[in-house]
TrEMBL record, chains A, B, C, D:
The keyword NAD applies. The active site is at 168. This is NAD-binding protein. It comes from the Bacteria.
Length: 291, 291, 291, 291
């Protein structure tokens, strides 16, 4: 397929790599051009404007946040885009913007699929992302071959694009909640001199299998928060989005409020660029200990 | 082996059943005798006093809470117990009482093993409990054959009995945290008309495998909180114990504070006897919806 | 003085009344013209555009929120405004917008004074507002005669306009915190059948004198949340602004997080238009009782 | 009157001083006798056992906590006490113990008045305590002359002694809530470089008059937490009692949960013996700043 790709951060670059490897034509655009050059060596065609990327069979966007997306995806871009284009937005954005984008695309006759992903850059590299796709069935059908190349599983979660965004935010909220609870559990254990590593063996071998508890728990057990696979600062961004989405439908999320405060504390104390697992350090500091 | 067993609630009765089936001799005692009679039909010998159960090779206790335990396990009982006896306490008790018991047993020359378990009555029935055992190695060695009959895995977590209790409380705190986060996620999704069931498929198929998320999440998705496999009231009891243990070592656990408040709200609104998953209903009510 | 006034809600209308009574010339503008007509009968001159109000010696704005303000106060308006004009913004707005406004006014050579107030419409009516004014001294000097007419006390809180807005948000956060604590105290007392009224007599007669505890406490004691002197929905708006301001400087405010959740719960359960004191009802509901 | 007094901490000693000055006969007992000797110089008669103090017209107890009280006030003491004695318990104790004491005194035919106080040692010294008295009217009537000597105001809050204790805990909860909100407000202001002192002038001059906001706020503004007029450790004790009282009637108190966590953090970080206002330091630390 002939694909445009906008946004070449760690996630975007890894996804483009897999698309190229699968034989697709990919026109790439990034605000800072250097990142695009690296992909050019893998066969990507670097274009000079978002509009050039917003053409062909499909355009995929993977921008950092609402503001970055709004700088690029605007009425002018949609106006110029070819009618048959399917725009797949894979970024984690606010539900409010997701709703706006759905309306704007509809008004311009552009197919719009929200397809946020679960998985960090390492999973993107390995083509093991989990994709939550929402939008018109026929539009998803058309880009499914792309999803098959970049993810291990695509979940179709309905016709309303923003539903996929709500799911993404809820999933990241659950992730953050698990990490915070690991951090608090470690603080409790630490108060009695019980080894977090032993505890982790028990719970990951029993009620809490899977990579989340083992991975973040392991970092907390070791007090090692670098290299950051998922930065605390970005975790905070997502918790804020979950809270904003919940606020818009008058839904209190008390655990999310705690998460926000803990992550703010991490950032305030200089750990925003460390891994999300640094919540374990926050919990330990509250107890007057090192974490 | 010749075993005494004290406390025949759902968990205790299931464990005794497995011990009998494996050919052990089990003398059983319960405050209300009726429960013991049922086990007599399976071969248990009903005794009239705790002291009669507190003899033989090992005595196992599985009482409801600190108060129930203190009514039965006192200085007089320990004084009369045979020196070689190993007392295995499987109940979830406070860390404070665990520390006291360790001292008292040592003072009376009775071997003491703390062996709290992960798993609900259905897991006990199926001999699939996870056992966290702490105490003197030789004492655990002696009762390991019993653990092999009633659990699927025994984790040895050190020589200090109370360490096993701290782990148990930390594990149940993590469980409660997962259930609350499922409930809040469901409330968020509900605000946008996204199906919890669909969300659950995504997260249990990806970051959150295992029985906890699937099981409690499924109950929340269905809004079905009965039959109660683990009652909200008992979940509250365990969160209280985790908070008390953390308080004793000056460790704030902000998520545990939220859990306590949510579980109190469940109890206050008449759902204490429903399943722990009723936290989903609490989260929905806060948002003005049914859960 | 010759004053323009933009925004004729309850607060604005009351302030204009006092300005007129003191003999000032007031040109008024409101998005919905009906409210202006009522003031015309008191002597106000109704103008058709914000620009007509944004002239003379001073222009005062008292709009509902950031969005309402941004619809009216824009570059075009500032461009056309007479150089000597002092713009006094009395509304409770975000700190972020306050900072932007300060810069924009400076760029256009318009004097800008932030002057948010403490006090509800009844205090505005009685000219008993407390005014927190920040901006250039000479600008405040020029409008001080107006402040003297509409308030009982002006606090000058520095040269940076946004400092006054931060103070306003901090003050309203403290107010909300006091109301929530009254609500929770009432729930605790209610659990034991102790009369909130008796408790209130004790604390307002001792550690907590002043109108806040007596006023909101009295509404909670009576379970009477109407008429709403300060609506829960507006209280929520201000708590959100405090949280956003704190977030921007990486400052966790755990009590504010609780307040937000409680107010969201009030709104979700249909009490957004009731008085802020309805936090007492939220606290009672959580305990399974009526409040 | 002929009075026995048990418990000579800072509060007790100050109260005894005022009773002596008013001409009453006071037999004093304290666990550590040294404190009693100091009062002997003011005219108190030092007795060797609690029983000797538990006689005469009235016995007043002012012990540190539930445990200290239970060591002294037991069945044997009540059995030996003269029938006409009125026991006035001024300590802040748990509601659970308050209920037990009421029953035990009734069973032994001893009049029991719960009379917890508002006010710190300096207020006790100045005979400016606020007294909340509950119990049989005639019993209170008999000790009212004593209350008049040691306090500035006695509130009669019903016939059930524990109601006074619930009120005391609710009042201290409100106090803690006010201090925490001052601390968080200071952290917010600090993030923008706004002076807490200026803010305090505004709010204490307006919505929040009285000694609580001015006093604790002033300490926070100065970052001065010594000398401790009311220690953080004791504040934590009272918050725990409020939470326990609320738990017993299934009442969530989310702000109290935050207070507990903040005070635990203070204690964990070595500030338990500093003034309660040290909550301001906790809030600042969370924001990565000094407080």
């Amino acid at each position: 397929m002939d694909i445009g790709f906008i946004g070449l951060g760690e996630m975007g670059a890894a996804i483009v790599g897999n698309l190229l490897e699968a034989g697709h034509t990919v026109r790439v655009w990034n605000r800072t051009a250097a990142k695009a050059q690296a992909l050019a060596r893998q066969g990507a065609r670097v274009v000079a404007t978002p509009a050039e990327a917003f053409s062909g069979d499909a355009a995929i966007s993977m921008l950092a946040d609402d503001a970055a997306l709004r700088e690029v995806i605007d009425a002018a871009l949609l106006e110029r885009a070819p009618r048959g284009l399917v725009h797949v937005n894979m970024a984690t954005i606010s539900v409010a913007l997701a709703q706006t984008l759905a309306q704007e695309h509809a008004a311009h006759g552009i197919q719009y699929v929200a397809a946020p992903v679960l998985g960090r850059p390492d999973a993107a590299q390995a083509a093991k992302l989990t994709i939550m796709a929402a939008g018109a069935s026929e539009a998803i059908d058309r880009v499914q071959p792309l999803f098959d190349v970049i993810g291990q599983k695509t979940w179709r979660v309905g016709a309303e694009p923003q539903h996929a965004n709500v799911m993404k935010l809820a999933a990241n909220f659950m992730l953050a909640s698990a990490v915070e609870s690991l951090g608090e559990a470690a603080a409790l254990l630490g108060g009695y001199g019980v080894a977090m590593r032993d505890f982790l063996d028990v719970v990951t071998g029993g009620p809490f299998p899977g990579p989340v508890y083992a991975g973040y728990g392991g970092m907390i057990a070791e007090g090692r928060y670098e290299p950051a696979l998922f930065k605390a600062r970005l975790g905070l961004k997502d918790v804020r989005l979950a809270l904003a989405a919940a606020d818009a439908v008058s839904t209190p999320l008390p655990v999310a409020s705690v998460l926000r405060d803990s992550l703010l504390e991490a950032v305030a104390n200089g750990d925003g660029e460390r891994d999300f697992a640094v919540l374990g350090k926050v919990a330990a500091r509250r107890a007057g200990r090192q974490g």
